[in-house]
Amino acid sequence: QRQNPAAGIDQQHIIANAATGRDWPSYGLNFSENRFSPLRGLTTDNVSKLGLAWSTDLGSKRGVQATPVVVGGVMYVTASWSVVHAIDARSGRTLWTFDPQVPRAHGEKGCCDVVNRGVAVHRGKVYVASYDGRLFALDAATGAKLWEKDTILDRARPYTITGAPRVFAGKVVIGNGGAEYGVRGYLTAYDAESGEQKWRWFSVPGDPAKPPEDESMARAMKTWDPAGRWWEAGGGGTMWDTMSYDPELNLMYVGTGNGSPWNRNLRSPSGGDNLYLGSIVALNPETGQYVWHYQETPGDNWDYTSTQPMILADLTIEGKPRKVVMHAPKNGFFFVIDRTNGQFISARPFTETTWASGYDSEGRPMENPAARPVNGTFEAIPTAYGARNWHPVSFNPQTGLAYMPVHGVPLSLTSDPAWRMNANVPGGFQSASGWNLGFLLNAEQPKAKPFGRLVAWDPVRQQEAWSRDLGGPWNGGTLTTAGNLVFQGTADGRFLAYDARDGKPLWEVPVGSGVVAAPSTWELDGQQYVSVAVGWGGVYGIVQRATDRVSPGRVYTFRLGGTAAMPAAVRAEARPLIGGVAYRKEDVEAGTGLYVANCAGCHGTPGVNSGGNVPNLGYTTRETMEALPKLVLDGAFAEQGMPRFDGRLDEAKLLQIRAFILGTVDSVRPR
Ligand SMILES: O=C(O)c1cc(C(=O)O)c2c(n1)C(=O)C(=O)c1cc(C(=O)O)[nH]c1-2
Ligand SMILES: [Ca+2]
Questions:
Q1: Whose CA is nearest to atom 1 of ligand 1?
Q2: Rounded to whole angstroms, how far apart are CA atoms 602 and 542?
Q3: List 241, 303, 492, 499, catalytic entry
């Protein structure tokens, strides 16, 4: 009989652990989610001697985004399709796995890969939320299911969960996603022991014909124009990732998402801030009652979610100690907000921003008048991929710097006044799976170029301290330590340590495949370990790959002098561009719109890059391409999460799609 490794993990433990850093007991290490470990076993002087302690296969072929949680000598890490792995932290041996058996048909109901960011642990239990919206409490010792709750209030709507639950004030709190499709965002808290529902807070108002749920909804209602009938599209505001907690102030903080549909001219035609989209909201964790909000992107129009990880810190600003929340959301500005009351302190761009030039002293953005075309195209920078995304940021109080992966993925937005809710129309990006944007994507070629870098940001001076170019977008989250180190994995399949003070690279190791998750660090038997879960994926990773490796999802653990052998990396099958399949040139144009509506979100652009975790069809085999109509209609890849398309497409349309694939490949084929 194994002792329950999470038996002693509770609020007091998490607070006390912030001083020792021995465990990594919650997603962001502590309630401030600063991912700053006080451990000093690894330093700038010895980090070059890191070696592999062990690695464990997670049996996952899609994105792995989880931060490994480690308590009592056991690691809890999740992989794609919300599968939980409990691993002996000493040996790397798998103790148990829990598979919530997400119906693969649910795969297409989420925008951005079938990912999961990790677990919460509390008093002997492990909590995980599954992609299809259920919340599970498991016995931390055995993986046995103790209870299960359906968190979804309307199963007719495409809700998903990718985020890690948090336990604040004895309650498990979880949000959801779906704002690219059309849902109304909400957060639910359950008693951590019994699973009983304690409260629910909506982030956007519902149907005005019904009474608002609370005061915060009554106020929000006035900032939306009913002519847009936003409640039919749900309004959005999904809280799919970040949460933090200040037990002294008895406040929890959550970042809210984008509008449904994206285009405000359609959602709320006369304008309005559309509260509480794109905001940081403070709630009472006991009751779920709204306390304050600060809206970072009023009247969101660009998928500028504020769900990116935020950090609580105590900073000295203009000579005064301030309790702040620091936040760098998708919209490209670094915000410092007073976390006691939501007062705006400062905001500065950490990358190019075309949608707004800055923020005024009241904390309102100074928008570019061209950023909301009623009829036309705007290349909003940052794009919907964000100036950064969910990849965690860390903050080191010794250097006073926040370490964040920053990137750019070009995209143009063309208003689509003909948009109708749930209309499956050629050219409407992923509209066959239920996307509702009110924009056409890349109808005009964007001018920006992709990039990725690691940025160290000084939140007091509001300026960059140093940065490192990483060659391309979509690099991993960060960890920082009292040994003045920053750890980060990269899209090109490396795991690195930098000097936190100046960004000098001190150590690196190849890990076989692109890294998107953030590392964690912990101590066992007096030794400091660093772990990172590797598995390329997410909304950019599903269609693009910067390495030729397709390593299965894997967690790597390093320590000083570790001598375990690195696992052999698996090379992606190098295939030539497809050719030799006949198609009608006149079908290419019709096929383009159908491909955009049905295929592009997962398979990407044929032939431009050998693809992410879902095959790029430009490199598929002749046999597959010849059988394409039948495979797609029959749901041949349903087990991998590919939808059945009978009822949405027919043989004639699939021949047009095939013509587009083959025509595109012919146009990029080197001569
Ligand atoms: O609006 C939403 O509800 C929602 C949900 C999610 C998600 O749950 O992963 C993402 C996004 N939006 C999003 O805009 C986005 O860029 C994104 C990237 C990723 C990812 O895992 O790589 N998820 C999401
Ligand atoms: Ca979104």
A1: 179
A2: 6
A3: 303
Encode pLDDT of 480-503 as tens digits.
Answer: 999 999 999 999 999 999 999 999
CA–CA separation, 298 vs 655, rounded Å?
Answer: 44
The two structure tokens encoding residue 569: 């990396």
| Residue 285 DSSP symbol | T
Closest residue CA from atom 20 of ligand 1 = 538
Top mutation candidate among 279, 389, 515 for ligand 1, by most atoms within 8 Å of CB: 389
**Ligand sitting nearest the alpha carbon of 391:** 1
* 303 flagged as catalytic: yes
Pocket lined around ligand 1, Cβ cut-off 6 Å: 111-113, 115, 160, 162, 177-180, 238, 240, 257-258, 303, 305, 386, 389-390, 538-539
| ipTM score assigned to the predicted complex | 0.99
Contact 147, 136 (CB under 8 A): yes
Distance CA 142, CA 98 (A): 9
**Which of 275, 316, 315 shows the shortest CA–CA distance to 293?**
275
How many whole angstroms separate alpha carbon 345 and alpha carbon 364? 12
Of 49, 47, 48, the closest CA to residue 39 belongs to: 47
Class of residue 567 by CB neighbours under 10 A (exposed 0-12, middle 13-18, buried 19+): middle
Distance of CA 188 to the CA centre of its chain: 19
Least confident segment among 66-80, 190-204, 387-401, 603-617:
603-617
pLDDT band at 572 (very low <50, low <70, confident <90, very high): confident
Q: Is the CB of residue 115 less than 8 Å from the CB of residue 64?
A: yes
Dist. CA 531 → ligand 1 center (Å)? 24
| Spatial distance between the Cα atoms of 658 and 643, rounded to a whole number of angstroms | 17
Nearest residue (CA) to ligand 1, atom 5: 177
Ligand number with the minimum distance to the CA of 175: 1
In angstroms, the CA 55 to CA 495 distance is: 14
Task: Tell me the best of 112, 115, 184, 439 to mutate to test the pocket of ligand 1, counting ligand atoms within 8 Å of each CB and taking the most.
Answer: 112
The structure tokens listed for 149 are 């709750």
Q: Convert the pLDDT of each residue in 604-641 to its tens digit.
A: 999 987 778 899 999 999 999 999 999 999 999 999 99
This model's pTM is above 0.90: yes
| Alpha helices, H only, 511-550 | 538-541
Smallest CA separation from ligand 1 atom 22, residue: 538
